[in-house]
Amino acid sequence: MITSAPKTYTGLSKLAGPILVIDNIDNVAYAEIVEIETPDGSVRNGRVLEISDKFALVQVFEGTYGLATETTSVRFLGRPLLARVSEQMLGRVFDGLGKPIDGGPEPFGGDKRDINGEPINPVARKYPREFIQTGVSAIDGLNTLIRGQKLPIFSGNGLPHNQLAAKIVRQAKIVDKEGKPSDDKFSVIFVAMGVKHDVAQFFRREFEESGALSNVTMFLNLANDPPEERVVTPRLALTLAEHLAFDCDHHVLVVLTDMTNYCEALREVASARGEVPSRKGYPGYLYSDLASLYERTGRISSAEGSITQLPILTMPNDDITHPVPDLTGYITEGQIVLSRELHAKGIFPPINVLPSLSRIMKDGIGKGYTRVDHPNWATQLYAAYSRVEYVRSLASIIGEEELTDTDKAYLKFGEGFENKFVKQNKNEDRSIRDTLAIGWELLSILPNHELTRISEEEIAEYLPR
User: Fold this and answer.
1) Higher pLDDT residue, 400 or 40?
2) Do 203 and 324 have their domain in common?
3) Beta pairing class for 7-10 and 33-37
4) Tens digit of pLDDT for each residue in 176-225?
5) Burial readout 329-366 (b: 16 or more C-beta within 10 A, e: otherwise)
6) Global confidence as pTM
7) 88 and 50: one domain?
8) Are 130 and 275 found together in one domain?
9) In angstroms, how far apart are the furthest CA atoms of the chain?
10) What is the DSSP secondary-structure string of 59-113?
């Protein structure tokens, strides 16, 4: 913990982009917050990125334009960046530095916390259990989101990830074993990084008109805001999430969009520091930096609440091997992949279930969580749809007329799967039982001898011929 007394230095040795350098410093700590006084008397904020025996390197959130090396004063505050956290922040909209932009008052009450958080003792972690119902069949049925999980959405430019994010925020809920809304406290923290003004307005309008905003806290970092601010925004949001989950026993869903913009800001700051770039120009510590965000997710034994993350990122050129999706996939527990081909067919949400995966869904579905038939049902649906891809390729070579009756059944199943199961209306909120019913209806298209992943008892109960 930083505890040094505030100190003021006048005169800079260097200015470079969002970075300034102060020489001859004493007792300055890493991540310490500073105040920079400009010639017009206004104050900007910054954070120490690097220190040595001779100098301190400071990142200025609002940029260094207009500063003069001879007259600029820098005051080291002797503490890290703190954020006020309170349940009163639910239903509010803040900018990327946590300042209200909804016309309401500054948050009051609660505590001030270090935005960098504290590592969770692995021994204190509880394994993620129980699912969060999003109302989206392709997620709830085949890539189930579990409380305490981090499950990213991999998208691309022009795909409707913003609409999907808004749909999930509006519809996400905790349900009991009977599928009814639970009494557990549930809240959403929505973080937008580097988004355009029209996109920010879209999210605000969607949440306000649906009534979801009363249970949502929004942090909006716009595209014309300084990229240095973008590095701070998700940490502010996660600090609030930790308070709600571990102090107030909320189940918190944190939606982060767009993580690619966050990584671009990180790359810009690293370039200004003169660091040796790694793959695609990103800093060599990109993996550990992303992990410092993603790993602030989970459950702990001393609290009833949980933090679940749904990061959204756009893959440049739809390249899933790009450093951002590549490293994100290593850290998180699966991925939901959006398909440009399904989007071209007019299917929303265009979730491609074949490359998508929720690695821990098996521990949050089935008896006591969703329904006892869910695990085998999901395995059978996935296997059947994967066969559809083979049959479509075969039909393109020999023609559909030459296919066997079984293969023709698979083609019919595939069309129904995409247009009845994956495809949903914008405001269609399906319960897990609705999702299971649609899946069983589609499996009834296939002959019994092809249903090798489900038991005879399940066939008799759910697929009476």
Assistant:
1) 400
2) yes
3) unpaired
4) 877 788 888 999 999 999 999 999 999 999 999 988 999 999 999 999 98
5) bebbbbbbbbbeebbeeebbbbbbbeebbbebbebbbb
6) 0.93
7) no
8) yes
9) 85
10) EETT--TT--TTT-EEEE-SS--EEEE-GGGTT-EEETTS-B-SS-PPP-SSEEE
